[in-house]
UniProtKB/TrEMBL annotation:
Principal location class: membrane
Its membrane topology: Multi-pass membrane protein
Organism: Eudyptes filholi (Southern rockhopper penguin)
Protein name per its UniProtKB record: Solute carrier family 12 member 7
Domain of life (superkingdom): Eukaryota
All copies of domain Amino acid permease/ SLC12A, residue ranges: 83-257, 376-650
Reactions catalysed: K(+)(in) + chloride(in) = K(+)(out) + chloride(out)
Length: 702
């Protein structure tokens, strides 16, 4: 009304301005927030065509590189395209396809449900705290680092930011290892460079293959990111479709088992599972033309093919049987998979409630075709392996500058994405336990069936979808991690990493990319997905813990600038989330937790020692001021008791012509008088007018 245009700011809600046009032209609107002023289905399709899974910083860098392109106004994204889909794509990953079935078989349906529920509750509480922080202002490039550093100060921000960077980098290594495992175990086992010559050497051969293929892939991925991730980003919608199709395929496969279970035979000797890589007929002997012939399986357990040969004691006492590995959802196998079956490394995978006669334990079983566990399993270890599958909740908050209404989209999209993925994980636990035999679930690399993927049995082409999903998630990690390190380096709070703030002319973090690829190579040299997953779990949990702490501190301090648009938060929820993150760190691995805390503590003390010059009005400084104010008010309550008396000295010093203390021993004498306690106020007098002596005054004060 005053002729001045309304300020366009993310802090001003424009809902009132658009209320008059709310119902204008609402034809076939699938998602209200995705529509333009004249919404049609084509508007949503257009947004999907421009879908990107990259953060705003990456998009800006790639846009700057092409200086000749025309200026086009990019439409702002809404909740569905801008937050929900990127979060969904980042949360659902390789753990779902490669390890969830194994976790269900090892921990049982009930304990698996507890594991998933704890991890999902942790991310949900963190998302509530993150939503409060993100809706208190715009979160630029840096995401979680920016939130923590501006809320808890540069020391905490630098320490946790670098830990989150390490977690994101190791996540890239984990996705690469998952990609290779899918390729060599389920798609093309013949592509392996190292092959096991004897039984029991499969694990070592696989680790060496992981290292060779992983190094090649990390070099290729680094080149792709360096050349320009915008070319890969053109396929972002394809990668998103792969994620959604793979989830649909799992449910479709489960439904199919209800009326047409797949033919998936499993060979058992007594209650012990046999690997069919060494034989084809699941029987001791066969009848042909009224003649009994021994099989290849007989030759593996006996010293000759004759019926009177000397055989393994257990082989002689027990029958060979064949059962269906995927009996279907109506088979009642859920009751057998309810309870946990933890085991030592190298123990035989056995079927529960199957008749078995114990044989002699003196005979070595190394060369026999049994299926052995390749890792020691227990509850806390499974928590550490599973937790990376619920990370990725920061994808929406990292792109607040690209959103039409970040104050509404970030909380709604993130919480809906976590709710959706939690439902997927929890339902998959029950469905896997109700469809598949426990011996298949507990066989980590599916040695039972010569490398046929468990989940793939629900949908034939799922293995290719999993491969594409893992590759793109790896590229996303290698794209986001260098920019996070660049944001920390450009803040200048950690001096020794400032070189990583530089890059190409358009701002691409070249040096940070090289460091990221090097650290990622360390994870690849470890070569075991089950060993890398707990490491990145520590770093992500530490980051989430401090996000919750930041929200709790800001809420309790009631600082004037703490006014989140997201109202459904409370400091008790943040404190509960922080406690759950800390508990999960020690549940996963107490020694990894101590190492992660030691790394963060060393970085914290280093930043504190070097003197963090940044002043962001953080909550820790606010806590100090509140504590000082509270203490001063308490001091004035009454005269101090004799026991609490401390000396308070006023020292008047003379300065020389260079504004240095003329008698420094006077300060030493003062220190001795008060024995290191009490309070000393030091002063000096300069003759002249203050405005004329301003420089000398500052020098004297220093």
């Amino acid at each position: 009304g005053d002729g001045i245009a309304r300020e366009n700011s993310p802090f001003i809600n424009s809902a009132e301005m658009d209320r008059g046009n709310m119902y204008e032209g609402k034809n076939m609107a699938l998602f209200e927030e995705e529509m333009d002023s004249n919404p049609m289905v084509s508007s949503l399709l257009n947004k999907l065509a421009n879908y990107t899974n990259l953060t705003q910083g990456v998009v800006e860098h790639e846009a700057d590189e092409d200086s000749k392109r025309k200026e086009v106004k990019v439409p702002r994204m809404g909740t569905f395209i801008g937050v929900y889909l990127p979060c969904l794509q980042n949360i659902l990953g390789v753990i779902l396809f490669l390890r969830l079935t194994w976790i269900v078989g090892t921990a049982g349906v009930l304990e698996s449900f507890i594991i998933v529920f704890m991890c999902c509750a942790c991310t949900m509480l963190t998302a509530i705290s993150m939503s409060a922080i993100a809706t208190n202002g715009v979160v630029p490039a840096g995401g979680s680092y920016y939130m923590i550093s501006r809320s808890l100060g540069p020391e905490f921000g630098g320490a946790v930011g670098l830990c989150f960077y390490l977690g994101t980098t190791f996540a890239g290594a984990m996705y690469i290892l998952g990609t290779i495992e899918i390729l060599l175990t389920y798609i093309s086992p013949s592509a392996a460079i190292f092959k096991a010559e004897e039984a029991g050497e499969e694990t070592e051969a696989m680790l060496n293959n992981m290292r060779i293929y992983g190094t090649c892939i990390i070099i290729l991925m680094a080149i792709v990111v360096f050349v320009g991730v915008k070319y890969v980003n053109k396929l972002a919608l394809v990668f998103l479709a792969c994620v959604i199709l793979s989830i649909i395929a799992i449910y479709a496969g489960v439904i199919k088992t209800a009326f047409d279970p797949p033919d998936f035979p499993i060979c058992l000797l007594g209650n012990r599972t046999l690997s069919k890589r060494s034989f084809d007929v699941c029987a001791k002997f066969t009848e042909s033309n009224n003649e009994t012939k021994t099989t290849t399986l007989w030759n593996l357990f006996c010293d000759s093919s004759l019926l009177n040969a000397t055989c393994d004691d257990y082989f002689s006492l027990n029958n060979v049987t064949e059962i269906q590995g995927i009996p279907g959802i109506m088979s009642g196998v859920l009751a057998d998979n309810l309870w946990s079956t933890y085991s030592e490394k190298g123990s035989i995978v056995e079927k529960k409630d199957q008749p078995s006669v114990a044989g002699s334990e003196e005979i070595k079983m190394g060369g026999l075709p049994y299926v052995f566990t390749d890792i020691m399993t227990y509850f806390t270890m499974l928590v550490g392996i599973y937790f990376p599958s619920v990370t990725g909740i920061m994808a929406g908050s990292n792109r607040s500058g690209d959103l039409k209404d970040a104050q509404k989209s970030i909380p709604t999209g993130t919480i809906l994405a976590i709710s959706t993925t939690s439902f997927i994980y929890l339902s998959c636990i029950v469905l896997f336990g109700a469809c598949i035999e426990g011996v298949i679930l507990r066989d980590n690399h599916l040695k039972i069936a010569s490398g046929s993927m468990t989940v793939r049995r629900h949908a034939d082409n799922l293995r290719w979808l999993c491969l594409v999903v893992s590759l793109f998630t790896c590229i996303y990690s290698l794209t986001g991690a260098p920019r996070l390190l660049q944001a920390i380096a450009r803040d200048g709070i950690v001096p020794f990493i400032q070189v990583f703030g530089h890059g190409k002319a358009n701002g691409e973090p070249t040096w940070a990319l090289l460091l990221t690829a090097g650290i990622c190579e360390i994870g690849i040299l470890i070569a075991s997905l089950d060993s890398v997953a707990p490491i990145l779990s520590m770093f992500f949990l530490m980051c989430y813990m401090f996000v919750n702490l930041a929200c709790a501190v800001q809420t309790l301090l009631r600082t004037p600038n703490w006014r989140p648009r997201f109202k459904y938060y409370h400091w008790t929820l943040s404190f509960l989330g922080m406690s759950l993150c800390l508990a999960l760190m020690f549940i996963c691995s107490w020694y990894y937790a101590l190492i992660a805390m030691l790394i963060a503590g060393c970085i914290y003390k280093y930043i504190e020692y070097r003197g963090a010059e940044k002043e962001w009005g953080d909550g820790i400084r606010g806590l100090s001021l509140n504590a000082a104010r509270y203490a001063l008010l308490r001091v004035e309550d009454g005269p101090p008791h004799t026991k609490n008396w401390r000396p308070q000295l006023l020292v008047l010093l003379n300065l020389d012509s260079e504004q240095l203390v003329k008698h420094p021993r006077l300060l030493s004498f003062t220190s001795q008088l008060k024995a290191g306690k009490g309070l000393t106020i030091v002063g000096s007098v300069l003759q002249g007018i203050y405005l004329d002596k301003c420089t000398e005054t500052q020098k004297a004060e220093e």
